[in-house]
Write a structure and sequence with these properties.
Length: 417
């Protein structure tokens, strides 16, 4: 994006185009933008926003393929969970995350494919696409990515309670509580991003045409809406600061603390189990299943932190630029970093499927049963359900003995993985 009311600058073309872009362009903002300073108008220019050119390839060609793969993997994951009764509280969270992560890339990927792969449009954003492009790439996807992020935090805290405080878990982590928290996560995400639906005023500006520099087209511009009492970039600075704290710093801190506490709790529990003088075979298997589920949660949390920490760093830099005029050279380099982080985020999306597949024997059996011969499916289903019921019976017995002996055992509902 480029800021200007009348912009006279030389533009370098990162991709081939029929218009000679190494020329001086005179942009005149339409008459419907009045009483605004130069810094309050953003002319949407893809060549400046994605200055190196590889961003078009990532968004237009790589993302649709990767998003399709992610949707397929998560569809398999949800099918196995529901079909074979793997619907414990942690599995419910995983299903909700899978739905959000499957939906989030659909809208932006569709618009990127249309502009960058089909139309091969690497120029100014046409005015008629202003709202659609903004909503589908910056607003709607965040409803679901934020929800997935918050549910991951909830699942991590829940799993810690299950491991460290099993006798409180039945009340604090019941399925009703989980369902309510998932809905609250979505409503919180919508409320955080809702202001983004209204904080731009969409206007036109005349720019040289795509196919012929002697013609003109109406490009999209973003500017300060009439209701905003402060400078546009002052507002964006405060908004980014609040977003960084609420969505970045606080949640990442919670994740790190929960991760460390969960590792400590599982190590303490393992040490306590080793001191027990007698353990039945079923109890030992149940302990392994509980440990796998906790390890899976730890791995999912680690992946979340892997891509969220760089996002927080970029947001902090953005705040410094907007609020304190921090010099980073070319601001569009920061936008390129955001593109890379966006792609990194969507590359990490299938990690939940892969982690679950590696750590859950029942899940692997369920996946295989979707592709094996029909006459063997019933036997596989019986095997999975029988194993689940056996573990449930063992866990019930184990929990009863643990209460009598004041042993910290995990509640029954989380033993299926």
């Amino acid at each position: 994006m480029q800021n200007a009311t009348r912009l006279n600058r030389t533009l370098e073309d990162p991709v081939s185009n029929s218009v000679n872009l190494n020329t001086e362009l005179n942009l005149t903002i339409g008459s419907n933008i009045t009483n605004l300073t130069d810094s309050e108008v953003i002319v949407v220019d893809f060549r400046q926003f994605y200055k190196y050119g590889f961003e078009f390839i990532l968004y237009g060609y790589f993302m649709p393929v990767w998003a399709s793969m992610s949707i397929i993997m998560y569809a398999l994951m949800i099918t196995v969970f529901i079909r074979y009764g793997m619907t414990s509280k942690t599995h419910i969270c995983l299903i909700a995350i899978a739905i959000c992560d499957s939906v989030s890339p659909i809208a932006p990927t569709s618009i990127w494919v249309y502009f960058f792969a089909i139309k091969k449009h690497y120029y100014y954003l046409p005015f008629e696409w202003c709202k659609i492009y903004h909503y589908t790439t910056e607003v709607i996807p965040q409803f679901f990515t934020y929800t997935s992020y918050f549910i991951t935090i909830m699942m991590t805290v829940q799993r810690y309670i299950m491991v460290a405080h099993p006798f409180k878990a039945e009340k604090l982590c019941s399925k009703t509580v989980v369902y309510v928290m998932i809905v609250l996560c979505f409503l919180t995400s919508v409320s955080i991003r809702l202001v983004h639906l209204f904080h731009y005023k969409y206007s036109k500006t005349s720019v040289p045409g795509i196919d012929n520099a002697n013609t003109t087209m109406q490009a999209c511009t973003f500017s300060r809406p009439d209701w905003m009492p402060v400078s546009f970039y002052t507002y964006l600075g405060f908004l980014m600061t609040a977003q960084t704290i609420i969505v970045g710093v606080i949640p990442c801190t919670v994740l790190v603390v929960s991760e460390l506490l969960m590792i400590k709790a599982i190590n303490a529990r393992s040490a306590k189990r080793e001191t027990m003088t007698s353990k039945a075979k079923g109890q030992s298997q149940n302990a392994k299943n509980e440990r796998r589920l906790t390890i899976a949660t730890i791995c999912i949390t680690a992946v979340t932190l892997f891509y969220m920490v760089p996002v927080v760093i970029i947001q902090v830099i953005d705040v410094l630029v907007l609020m304190f005029d921090f010099d980073i050279g070319d601001y569009n380099n920061l936008r390129t970093a955001i593109v890379v982080l966006n792609v990194l985020y969507w590359m990490c999306i299938p990690s939940n499927f892969l982690i679950t597949c590696c750590l859950s024997r029942e899940f692997r059996r369920g996946i295989r049963s979707l592709f094996i011969k029909p006459e063997t499916v019933q036997n596989t289903i019986i095997s999975i359900v029988s194993l689940a019921k056996t573990q449930e019976s063992v866990c019930n017995s184990e929990t009863t003995e643990s209460v009598k002996g004041n042993d910290s055992e995990t509640v029954v509902d989380e033993q299926k993985i």
